[in-house]
Every structure is written in C-alpha cells, then in structure tokens.
Amino acid sequence: MSAHKLFRLALGSILVSLIVLGLKVLAYWLTGSVALYSDALESVINVVTAITAAAALWFSHQPADHNHPYGHGKAEYLSAVLVGVLITLAAISIARYAYYGFLDPKPMNAPFEGLAVNLAATVINVVWAFVLIRTGRRERSLALEADGKHIFTDVITSVGVFFGLVGAVVFDLPILDPIFAALVALNIVWMGVMLMRQSVGGLMDEAVASDTLAEIKAIISKEAEGAIEAHDIRTRQAGRNIFVEFHLVVPGTMSVSDAHDICDRIERAVEDGVEGTAVTIHVEPDNKAKHQGIVVI
Q1: CA-based radius of gyration for the chain
Q2: How far is 249 from 254, CA to CA, in rounded Å?
Q3: Which family does it belong to (predicted)?
Q4: Beta partners for 281?
Q5: I want to staple 34 with a disulfide (CB 3.0 to 4.6 A). Which of 38, 42, 181, 195 is the partner?
Q6: Residue 246, CA atoms < 13 Å, CB-side half-sphere
C-alpha cells in the first residue's frame, strides 16, 4: 500500500473517531452515567490518537535527507509514546470521576436509550479497529496498529460497560456505575503501558521479529552463491523501514568486481522479498570466516 493510501486511511480514522466520540457524548448526556462518561473520555483519546497517527505517518514517509540519512521512520514510535502518556492522563481523570461516583452513586436517566447509542458507537469501532490493525500489521505501520489496538481496547471497555450498566438497571444497583468506570481506568492504564513498551522497543533499535529474520536469512543463503558464509547478521526496525547488516566472507582470490556482483544480487533479493528493507554488506576474505551464521559452501 502506498504512503498516500496509508495517510488517507489515517485521515479516515480521524473522521470515524469524531463520529464515535459524538455518539458516546450523546450517550453520557442522556444517562449521566459515570461509566459512560469514562467511555466517552477514552474516545477523546481516540481522536487524539488518530490525529497523532496521521501526523506520524506523514512525517515518517518523508524521504531521507541530510540530517536524517536513515529516514524518518521512528516518528511513529514517538507518536505511540505520546499516545501512551495521554492514555494514562485519561485514566487518572476517569478514576477521579469514579471516586466521586462511589461517594454518591446515582441512578441513570434514560438508560436504555443511552446504552443503545453507545452500542452503535461500539459497532463502528469494531469494524474500524479490525481495518486498522490488519493494515498496520501488513504494512508494518506502528502508528496505524497502535491506533487500531487502542480502538479495540475501547471496544472491550464499551462491551464491559454495556453489560455492567444493564445489570445496574435491571438489579437497581447504581453502585455498579462507578465500579465499571474504575475498571475502565485500570484497563486504559494497562493499554497505555503496553503501548509505550512497544514504542520504546522501536526507539531502542529492537531487532525484527524471528519469522522476518528467518525469511531474510533464507534469502541470503539462496542468493549468496560464490561466497563462503554470512555472519554477524544484525537487524533493526524503524517504523516501516528495516535495516540489515552482515559480513559476507568470499574467497581471498575473488575479484572486487565479482564480490560486488554477489552483494548486489543479495541486496536486490532481500529488498524485493522483504518490503522496506535496506541492506549493508561488509565483504571479508576467507581467513575471516567464523564458520557460523549462514554457511554457503
């Protein structure tokens, strides 16, 4: 998928999150429920997340320049850290309202009308979260995947709140309203911590997933005919970009031109096989062989 299409998807996420926020604010206005207030507040974070994701996608797809020779892919990780912080602040606000709800629990106004509106917003979120997570994973876009996961967490929250408030109405237990608001706050904190942990891993040059590394190694082994071995393979990921470095051992009598041809062949194959990959190869003579890594002959 092109960068332009990904950016349009991020803009679409802003529109969807605004529609969902409007529905949830309406649900809170109809009922006065503390739990539905917390659900609506989480949707405010959805809007911020969507805007941040769109900005990060735009910036991360800017071409490499003099000051950023490796590109701008890590902008997506920075956006995820920001969203994690905002999520934590939202949880604190929700916990505050839940506390006052415990002190003075009140029955809801028009509960079924409000819950019906909230349920409609949840259905929209289910569909959109699926689209964002699937696209984010396929395109290796942390910003889109983080946005989708946040929305999906919102879905889980909304479903829990829905059934909890139905129970509060049916059994006439207003105290369930602030209880579920507090549970929403705990759920949001957990989501924020996990999101920041994932983004920090990217900022710390975390290696690619094991299945991706295995795919890269298989391509190197297949395309390195004429070389002896490839060792000290290192990878790091920055947004959609993957950087691969390794040492390629060739016969000491091989010409520079022939060694260069092998490197070109490997680079093209890896970059074609794993989208967004940039390969750097250090060529060494056979006396530098370590007899480990990828043995070619």
Answers
A1: 25
A2: 10
A3: Belongs to the cation diffusion facilitator (CDF) transporter (TC 2.A.4) family.
A4: 246
A5: 181
A6: 29
* Distance between CA atoms of residues 192 and 86, nearest Å: 8
Pairing of the two strands 277-285 and 241-250 = parallel
Chain-centre distance of CA 126, in angstroms? 16
Strand-pairing partners, residue 237, are 242
Average pLDDT over residues 245-269: 94
How far is Cα 125 from Cα 151, in angstroms, rounded to an integer? 6
pLDDT greater than 60 at residue 157: yes
Q: Which domains does the chain have, with CATH numbers?
A: 3-203 (1.20.1510.10), 210-295 (3.30.70.1350)
- Strand residue runs (E) in the chain: 229-238, 241-250, 277-285, 294-295
Packing angle of the helix pair 111-138, 34-60 (nearest 10 deg): 20
Is the separation of the CB atoms in 106 and 169 below 8 Å? no
Q: Identify the burial level of 29 via C-beta atoms within 10 angstroms of its C-beta, where 0-12 means exposed, 13-18 middle and 19 or more buried.
A: middle
Could you tell me the two tokens for 126? Answer: 């289910």
Measured from the Cβ of residue 61, the count of other Cβ atoms closer than 10 Å reads 20
pLDDT of 201 reads: 65
pTM above 0.90, yes or no: no
92-136 pLDDT per residue, tens:
777 777 777 777 777 777 778 888 898 899 999 999 989 888 888
What pLDDT score does 291 carry? Answer: 78
pLDDT digits (tens, 9 = 90+) for 137-149: 777 676 677 778 7
Give the separation between CA 296 and CA 230, rounded to whole angstroms.
Answer: 8
User: Apex CA 217: angle with CA 215 and CA 221, to 5°?
Assistant: 120
Bridge partners of 236, per DSSP, are: 243
